[in-house]
C-alpha cells in the first residue's frame, strides 16, 4: 500500500476531490493530504506532516475534545468515526464551519490508516444567518423559496434520476468485479456512495414536491404511533423506547400522512437522543377545533440559533444528511389543515407539536 500511496495515480486521485482529504496512519501521523485540505486548514503539507504542528490544529476547533474522540475512534479503537461538525479558527483570522467524516483504510483486513474528508459548509450557515437577520420578510421569503423549490425540483428530479441510475448501476457492476485489496475499489466505493446520497436527495425532493390530497377520517392513534416508530427505527438504525401511556382514542387525519409525520418526528428524536437510552414520549389532547399531538425526547434539545431554520429545505445539523424530513413533515401537516412546530421542552430535550383540525 505504501508504494501505491506514493504513486502519481494516488496523488492525482486525492487532488480530484473537491473536499479536503487527509490520510493518517495508525499512529495518527499525516502522510497524505490534498491541496483542498491544506487550504481549508490554512497549513502546508509539510506542517500537516509535522506531529507538533498537526496536533495544534485540534486546538483550533470549537470542540477539541470531540475532535480528539473523532480521530481516536479510527486510530486507537479501530472504529469508523461518527461524522462531526466543528467551527474551525482558520489562521487567516476567520471562523469556518466544517463537516468531518472518516473512513477506515484496510489492507488484508487490517487497519493501516484513516481517511478524513473535510467539507466547508460555512456559506450554508452564513446564508441562514442572513435569512435570520431579515426577520420582517422571512415568512414571505420562505413561502416564495418553497414554491420555487417545488417547481424547480420536479424538473431537476426528472433530469437527474435516469443518469443517476446509470452511474450507480455501472459503478456497482464495476465494483463487483474488483478483488479484495484492489486500489480502484475504494474509488469506486466513493462514487457509489455519492450516487446513493444523490439518490436520497432526489427522492426527498420528489416527495416534497408531490402534493397530497388528504383523506381525513377517524384514525387509531396508538396503532399509527407504533407503525411510525417502527419505521423510524428502521430508517435510522437506532434503538429506543416509545412511551404512549393514555394514547388510546381516535383523531381525525389522513392515516398515511399522519404516520409519515410521526415517523419523521420519531426519527429526528431518535437521532438527537442519547444512543444508549433514547426515550420518546407521544401524547395528545383533544381541543375544541381538533387535536394536538406532542413528541418529546430526552436529547439535548435544538439550539436556539438553529430553531428558526429546522423546517427549511436541506437544512441539517448532521454531517451527513439530506435535511428534508422535517420539511416534508410540515408540508404534510399543512396539507391536512394543521401546523407543526419544534421547540425546546420545558425540562430539556426537543418537543414537536402537531395540531390537527377536527375536520377538513
UniProtKB/TrEMBL annotation:
One of its GO terms (molecular function) is ATP binding. Residues 6-48 form the PAS domain. Residues 155-360 form the Histidine kinase domain. Keywords: ATP-binding, Kinase, Nucleotide-binding, Phosphoprotein, Transferase, Two-component regulatory system. SMART domains: HATPase_c (SM00387), HisKA (SM00388), PAS (SM00091). CDD domains: HisKA, PAS. It catalyses: ATP + protein L-histidine = ADP + protein N-phospho-L-histidine. It is an enzyme of class 2 (transferase). Pfam families: HATPase_c (PF02518), HisKA (PF00512), PAS_9 (PF13426). Its EC number is 2.7.13.3. This is histidine kinase.
Amino acid at each position: 500500500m505504501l508504494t501505491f500511496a506514493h504513486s502519481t495515480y494516488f496523488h492525482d486521485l486525492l487532488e480530484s476531490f473537491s473536499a479536503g482529504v487527509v490520510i493518517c496512519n495508525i499512529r495518527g501521523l499525516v502522510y497524505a493530504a490534498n491541496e483542498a485540505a491544506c487550504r481549508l486548514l490554512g497549513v502546508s503539507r509539510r506542517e500537516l506532516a509535522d506531529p507538533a504542528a498537526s496536533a495544534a490544529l485540534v486546538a483550533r476547533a470549537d470542540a477539541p475534545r470531540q475532535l480528539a474522540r473523532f480521530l481516536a475512534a479510527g486510530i486507537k479503537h479501530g472504529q469508523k468515526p461518527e461524522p462531526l461538525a466543528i467551527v474551525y479558527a482558520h489562521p487567516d483570522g476567520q471562523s469556518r464551519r466544517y463537516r468531518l467524516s472518516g473512513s477506515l483504510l484496510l489492507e488484508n483486513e487490517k487497519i493501516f490508516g484513516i481517511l478524513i474528508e473535510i467539507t466547508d459548509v460555512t456559506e450554508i450557515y452564513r446564508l441562514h444567518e442572513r435569512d435570520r437577520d431579515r426577520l420582517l420578510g422571512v415568512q414571505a421569503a420562505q413561502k416564495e423559496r418553497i414554491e420555487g423549490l417545488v417547481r424547480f425540483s420536479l424538473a431537476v428530479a426528472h433530469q437527474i434520476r435516469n443518469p443517476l441510475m446509470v452511474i450507480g448501476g455501472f459503478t456497482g457492476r464495476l465494483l463487483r468485479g474488483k478483488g479484495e485489496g484492489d486500489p480502484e475499489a475504494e474509488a469506486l466505493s466513493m462514487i457509489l456512495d455519492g450516487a446513493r446520497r444523490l439518490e436520497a436527495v432526489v427522492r426527498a425532493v420528489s416527495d416534497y414536491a408531490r402534493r397530497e390530497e388528504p383523506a381525513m377520517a377517524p384514525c387509531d392513534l396508538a396503532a399509527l404511533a407504533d407503525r411510525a416508530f417502527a419505521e423510524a427505527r428502521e430508517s435510522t438504525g437506532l434503538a429506543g423506547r416509545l412511551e404512549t401511556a393514555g394514547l388510546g382514542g381516535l383523531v381525525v387525519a389522513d392515516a398515511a400522512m399522519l404516520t409519515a409525520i410521526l415517523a419523521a418526528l420519531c426519527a429526528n428524536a431518535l437521532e438527537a437522543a442519547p444512543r444508549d437510552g433514547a426515550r420518546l414520549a407521544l401524547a395528545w389532547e383533544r381541543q375544541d377545533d381538533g387535536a394536538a399531538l406532542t413528541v418529546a425526547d430526552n436529547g439535548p434539545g435544538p439550539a436556539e440559533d438553529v430553531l428558526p431554520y429546522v423546517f427549511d429545505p436541506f437544512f441539517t445539523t448532521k454531517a451527513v444528511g439530506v435535511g428534508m424530513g422535517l420539511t416534508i413533515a410540515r408540508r404534510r401537516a399543512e396539507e391536512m389543515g394543521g401546523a407543526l412546530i419544534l421547540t425546546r421542552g420545558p425540562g430539556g430535550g426537543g418537543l414537536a407539536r402537531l395540531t390537527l383540525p377536527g375536520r377538513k
